Amino acid sequence: MQSVLKDPLVHFLLIGGLFFAVFVWRNDTPDPGRITITQDQLIELARTQTPIAGSDLSRAQLEALVEPAIREEIYYREALALELDVDDDQVRTRLIEKMRYLTENLADPEPASEAQLLAFFEADPARFLVPEAVSFEHVFLSPSQRGATIDADAAQLLLQLRGGESGENLGDRTPLGYLFDAATQPRLAVLFGEAMTEALFTLPLDAWHGPFESDFGLHLVRVRSRSAARQPAFAQVRDLVLDAFAVQRRQERNEAAFQQMRSRYDVTVEWPQRSAESQR
C-alpha cells in the first residue's frame, strides 16, 4: 500500500476521469459532493451529441444526454472514494497513457531554418540514402488452384513466356499485382521472402526465370531494370530532412519534459544482492 501511495501516478487520478466519465465536469466549488453543470458544458455536450450540426435540442433531449453523464461522474467519484483505483493495473495503464498524451507531442516545434536543416542532413547523410531498387513483372501460380500440377504448369508457362507470349494474362490472380516498379529490398523480402528477393537483385535483365517459391506460391519473373543505391543531394530530399528533423526535435522535447518531471522525485532502486560468484 505504501508503494502505491508513493506512486506519482496516483497524484494524477483526477485525469482518470477523462477516461471513465462521458463528460468532464469542471466545478467552481471545492465541495466534492457538488456537481455543477455549466451552460458552456451543456452547449458542448449538445454540440458533440447532436446528429445534425446546428440543430437545437429541447430541454427533454438535453436531460436525456445529461443524466447518463451525471451517472458516470457519480460512479467515478464513488469509486475513488472507495479507493477502487488502488492496485488496479488497468487504471494505472490508463493514467500512464493519459500522461503521455498530455506531455508528449503537444505542439510542433518552431520552424527550422535552412541552416539547421542542412546541418542536420550533413551530420548523417546516409540516413537519407535512396536504396537499391528493382522493377520486374511476375506470373503467379497458386498451389490451391494448381494442386499437384503446379510444377508442370510452371515449366509450361515458362516456355510460353520465353517464346514471346505476354505474361500479363497468364498465371493465376494475385492481390500482389503483375508489375513492381522501383521496389526496394526490405519491401520485397516481406512479400516474397529472402531467396526470391536475392534472385531479383542478381538475375540477368529482360529474361524470364523461375519458378521461385514464396509463401503465396510459385512465381516466374522477368527483371526489367535495377537502380543502384545513391546518395541524394540535400535539395532533393529537403522535405524528408524537414520531417526527420521535426521528429527528432519533438523526441528531444518529450525527453526533456519527462526529465523535468523525474527531477521532482527521489528515485530509489532496491537492486537484489548478488553473490561474488555471480558477479564474475
Number of helices: 11
How many discrete structural domains? Answer: 3
Strand content: 5-15%
Query: Helix and strand string, N-terminal first?
Result: HHHHHHEHHEHHEEH
Which percent bin holds the helix content? 40-55%
Number of strands: 4
Derived structural class? alpha+beta
- State mean pLDDT (0 to 100 scale): 80
Distance between the termini: 37 Å
**Stretches where pLDDT falls below 50 for ≥5 residues?**
1-30
Largest sheet descriptor: 4 strands, antiparallel
Radius of gyration: 31 Å
Q: Multimeric state of these chains?
A: single chain
Task: Give me the side-by-side strand order of the main sheet.
Answer: 2-1-4-3
Shape, please? elongated
Report on this model:
- With 280 residues, the chain is an alpha+beta fold.
- The protein has three domains: 2-103, no CATH class; 108-123 and 232-280; 131-227, Chitinase A, domain 3 (Roll).
- It is 45% helix and 11% strand.
- The protein is built from eleven helices and four strands, in the order H-H-H-H-H-H-E-H-H-E-H-H-E-E-H.
- The chain has helices at residues 2-6, 17-20, 39-49, 59-81, 89-103, 114-123, 143-146, 150-162, 185-192, 194-200, 238-262; strands spanning 133-141, 179-184, 208-213, 218-227.
- Strands 2-1-4-3 form a four-stranded antiparallel sheet.
- Helix 6 (114-123) packs across helix 11 and helix 9 (185-192) packs across helix 10.
- Mean pLDDT is 80; it is low at 1-30.
